[in-house]
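WARN  no MSA supplied for this record, continuing single-sequence
INFO  ligand: NAP
INFO  echoing inputs
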Amino acid sequence: MSKHIWLITGSNRGIGLETAKQLLDSPENVVLATCRKPSQATALAQLAESAPGRLHVIELDTNDDASVRQSVEQASSIVGDSGIDYLINNAAINEGMGTVSSTMDLDILTREFRVNVLGPARVYQAYLPLVAKSQKKTVVNMSSRLGSIGNNCGTLYTTYSITKTALNMLTYKEHAERPDLVFIAMDPGHLKTELGGPTAVLEVSVGVKGVLNVIGRLQAEDSGKFFSFRGEVHPW
Ligand SMILES: NC(=O)c1ccc[n+]([C@@H]2O[C@H](COP(=O)([O-])OP(=O)(O)OC[C@H]3O[C@@H](n4cnc5c(N)ncnc54)[C@H](OP(=O)(O)O)[C@@H]3O)[C@@H](O)[C@H]2O)c1
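INFO  complex generated
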């Protein structure tokens, strides 16, 4: 059986954790579950016990060059020549739920930009050699419907929306430069996680199931697009 190797950032909770969980349901998947503090990632440790040899917990702070470099060394030693089939840039923050342009806190915008845009850019650059030598060669940038200008998302969530729109452009540019790889921006839906907040209606398992369905059906011609977890293509 040929293995599919996945790397997920921010996998100690929320969508990242659920993604790791659902992937382990299929015996062909091997998951490199990365997070900032493995020693505190108890849910990941339990998952690793339930799937011996198929879930590897790796320390990775997407904001930190040295941490990303060390994680690449560790990941390389685990995957060898197989590379990484699916790089899931999932880690993000949202500190400014109610922000509007006229009053948004620029320090929040800076912090969110650093994690939500520079993080995926840094991780992509560092992991590109491993992704490029894999079978599937796929990069998924976890975006949000709030990053879609064409969806008329209104005045609120300004700082976070700006970062997700920038992430969408990063996805487009990555695709434009490397047509030999597959890149998508993904909207997982509004899900019940810390980031999704108390008004979210969908269980995290529902959104993640949709996300994995979309990824599982990707073709080369889907690269450079922005998908919802239901498989629709969002306008940029
Ligand atoms: N939930 C939703 O409704 C929703 C909707 C649209 C899009 N999304 C997107 O889906 C993705 C996951 O969101 P979520 O709802 O699962 O959020 P979450 O529950 O708040 O989890 C965020 C994850 O990101 C990690 N993280 C934050 N900064 C990091 C850094 N510098 N390095 C490494 N990891 C870092 C967190 O780790 P720590 O525990 O160490 O902080 C945590 O594991 C995000 O990209 C988000 O924008 C979510």
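Residues 4-228 form a domain with the Rossmann fold fold (CATH 3.40.50.720).
INFO  checksum written, moving to next record
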